[in-house]
Amino acid sequence: MLAQLGFILLAAVNIAAYFLMWLDKQRAIKNGAGQNLRRISENTFFLLSLLGGFLAIFFAMQQFRHKTKHPSFYFVVIFSAAIWLFVMPYMYVKLEM
């Protein structure tokens, strides 16, 4: 039951991260055309990445060609992936003992 809830939460975070990357790209395009739309904070993307949305952010960066020139985004995505792929399973095993 807890694993299913975790999976649903991870899916929701990834869907939200992908959608927000798309939305921010659209707003960036429109701002370049003279409109003044509020952009989504980079800290929001960093938080979503750390919460498990690193896959969606990485794929959205590639698909929309958005934030690809920001080394900090790549660093946070790689750092988040390392946490979720190595540290989290280690902590899970440690807590089970």
Based on DSSP secondary structure assignment, what is the total number of beta strands? 0
Strand content: under 5%
Structural class: mainly alpha
- Rough shape? elongated
Q: Rg to the nearest angstrom? A: 15 Å
Helix content: over 70%
The biggest beta sheet, please?
none
Structural domains: how many: 1
**How widely separated are the two ends?**
20 Å
> How many individual helices?
3
Runs with pLDDT <50, length 5+?
none
Q: Strand-and-helix sequence, N→C?
A: HHH
Could you report the average pLDDT, rounded to the nearest whole number?
89
Short description:
The chain has 97 residues and is mainly alpha-helical. The protein is built from 3 helices and no strands. The two termini are 20 Å apart.
Describe the structure.
The protein has helices spanning 2-32, 42-64, 71-96. It is mostly helical. It has one domain. The mean pLDDT is 89.
